[in-house]
Specification:
This protein has helices spanning 48-60, 125-131, 137-146, and strands at residues 8-17, 23-28, 35-36, 39-41, 67-72, 77-80, 91-101, 117-123. By secondary structure, it is an alpha+beta fold. Helix 2 (125-131) packs antiparallel against helix 3.
């Protein structure tokens, strides 16, 4: 039976900023040099905000007591995966959230529940958009537009 490749996986994404509006970016462990924001699938009957908090904890080790919700993107943002990738059907439809660190926190990926990321850095969302894999750039541009008032600009 052929796999249905026309589906879009429901998922969430998270932007974490510091008090200066710098964005916390993560380097993928399976693709060194590829930087991105935390994201992941929406579980059955799971609300998007709850999924965003769960994904943030699982992928980065940042807990609810270390971040506060600042904003939510009003739309579901969609991207298509390259044709050679069948990991999640045709692509993903994502609900995005913006969080701010609430305290001086040491980012420790050893606390994460997964090994998806191997490193982290502070950057601008504009800079991250320009260096992330091409199929994510459109979504990151939309995030940059919507969350601009919270973010430091420039590269």
């Amino acid at each position: 039976m052929a796999k249905n490749t026309q589906t879009f996986r429901a998922s969430v994404g998270v932007v974490v900023i510091d008090s200066d509006g710098m964005v916390l970016a993560f380097e993928r462990a399976d693709e060194p040099g590829q930087w991105q924001l935390p994201q992941g699938g929406l579980g059955f009957d799971e609300e998007p905000l709850a999924a965003a908090r769960r994904e943030l904890w699982e992928e980065t080790g940042l807990g609810d007591d270390e971040v506060r919700l600042l904003a939510e993107h009003p739309e579901w943002l969609v991207y298509e995966l390259p044709r050679y990738s069948s990991k999640h059907g045709r692509g993903q439809a994502q609900k995005w959230f913006l969080f701010e660190l609430t305290m001086a926190t040491t980012i420790d990926l050893q606390r994460a529940q997964s090994d998806e990321f191997q490193d982290w850095k502070w950057t601008t969302l504009e800079g991250l958009r320009d260096e992330t894999i091409e199929f994510r750039r459109g979504v990151y541009s939309r995030l940059l537009e919507h969350f601009a008032g919270y973010l430091r600009s420039g590269k």
